[in-house]
Design a protein that fits this description.
Length: 447
């Protein structure tokens, strides 16, 4: 029986980490589940390219497991997978000189502790830093904090909540890992589990409208623009629907390209959506003929995991350590990524190569060593329109508010709905587990 001819238990809107994890729990609990995904692949903002000639996968989206990440490690164990510790030193290069870690790191930590004494309900990061940057002893710490907000959090300092940033940074630590075979292997294994549990994943299916006015949720779909092979539109009816769209999609005004029409509109979510923003990221993976950085400048970069060149267009690069692979990943976040978004692929790669040269010098022959490059501009991705979320001024309660179900029919998941670990796969997985529990409780209460 096709999904359009029967009422299913749960329609999951989006096949990212949150939707897949929720669907797994629901299907294993005996629910009939239909997953609708606009792309021609699963994973959402996970985008893994596998090259059998390399010892590691190429990650153009999510890559790391930050800290203890209990939901991620639990899922890896359940799926028979493992994680690899991202070893290697942090090396900062300024004016040709290297230091093992930016000296301002400790000062930044002490500076952000001052947020606890703020009299205001909230401030932007930029407003907060402006109170301290006239102090010569804190000038470097303020500059470093601004770079972290833009780079690590992919956020705009003029919009980001300093209270949310301080809360996030206070919980940092616990190491940094990667799934052993990449996040693509994790979502592929999830898909196999879902198939075995009887769930259906339908790709290239764009949700155009969600009517939740009645006792059931009615969903209409279309094919993506420019699809090579059109997929027939679908009319699906579900007892419950789980919405996992990025906030950038939920924030689209009615009638705008990529907007989903909700009937009735999601007025109850308006304030929560105002407290969240999707940050900008450009990520370039450069493949070289060999790992030349292990050999240049008396091998001072041989054990470098992360390389920082604050003045470069791409201020952060990292290697594949502990694997010895000829790959460098160039990372740009925040306003500078937003400004470069939409540039040609060749322009973006050129900026990445210039950034590599700022670290190793032109004498390293970076361009001659280049074998291939991989780029994904998440701002131009119509189903993401950005990388990951951050909390804006006054929005510290926004994730919890966005997560609240509506009339026991619409439920919400995704990294933006997680009060902790916002912007991570861990947050997405946690939110999917939480939403699945809410849906099961609701279905049982109305059985």
């Amino acid at each position: 029986m096709t999904p359009s001819s029967r009422v299913i238990d749960v329609a999951v809107l989006g096949a990212g980490a949150a939707g897949l994890n929720a669907a797994r729990i629901l299907a294993e609990s005996g629910c009939s589940v239909l997953i609708l995904e606009a792309r021609d692949r699963i994973g959402g903002r996970i985008l893994t390219v596998d090259d059998p000639t390399l010892p590691v996968p190429i990650e153009l989206g999510a890559e790391f497991i930050h800290g203890s990440a209990p939901a991620t490690f639990e899922l890896l164990r359940r799926l028979g997978m493992s994680a690899v510790d991202s070893t290697g030193n942090h090396v900062t290069v300024r004016d040709g000189r290297t230091s093992p870690r930016d000296e301002a790191f400790g000062d930044v930590h002490r500076l952000m502790q001052q947020v606890e004494s703020l009299r205001e309900e909230d401030l932007s990061v930029e407003e907060f830093l402006s109170r301290y940057q006239s102090d010569p002893s804190l000038e470097t710490a303020c500059a470093y904090a601004r770079r972290m907000v833009e780079g690590f959090d992919a956020a705009c300092p003029q919009r980001a909540s300093v209270r949310a940033i301080a809360r996030e940074w206070s919980g940092m630590g616990g190491g940094q890992f990667r799934p052993a075979n990449g996040y693509g292997a994790l979502v592929a294994q999830l898909a196999r589990v879902l198939d075995g549990a009887g769930a259906q994943i339908r790709l290239q299916t764009v949700v155009s409208s969600v009517d939740w006015a009645g006792a059931e949720v009615r969903i209409a779909t279309s094919s993506p623009e420019g699809a090579v092979q059109a997929v027939a539109p679908l009319q699906a009816t579900a007892r419950r629907a789980l919405v996992t769209f990025p906030v950038s999609v939920l924030q689209r005004p009615p009638g705008a390209p990529g907007a989903v029409r909700f009937a009735p509109p999601l007025d109850e979510k308006a304030k929560a959506l105002q407290g969240l923003a999707l940050g900008a990221v450009l990520k370039v993976v450069l493949r070289f003929r060999h790992a030349f950085w292990d050999e240049v400048q008396s091998r001072r970069f041989a054990n470098a995991g992360f390389l920082h060149s604050p003045q470069a267009a791409f201020p952060t690069l990292w290697t594949a350590l502990p694997a010895r692979a000829p790959l460098l990943t160039a990372w740009m976040g925040g306003p500078r990524a937003q400004r470069l978004a939409g540039a040609s692929r060749s322009q973006i790669v050129e900026k990445a190569l210039e950034s590599v040269e700022s670290l190793f010098g032109t004498e390293a022959g970076v361009r001659d060593e280049l074998k291939a490059s991989y780029v994904h501009d998440w701002q131009q991705d119509p189903f993401a329109r950005g990388a990951y979320d951050y909390i804006t001024v006054g929005g510290c309660n926004a994730p919890e508010a966005l997560a609240q179900p509506l009339r026991h029919r619409l439920f919400f998941a995704g990294e933006a709905t997680s009060a902790s670990d916002v912007g991570t796969v861990e947050a997405a997985l946690q939110s999917g587990r939480r939403a699945a529990g809410e849906i099961l409780e609701s279905l049982r209460a109305n059985a």
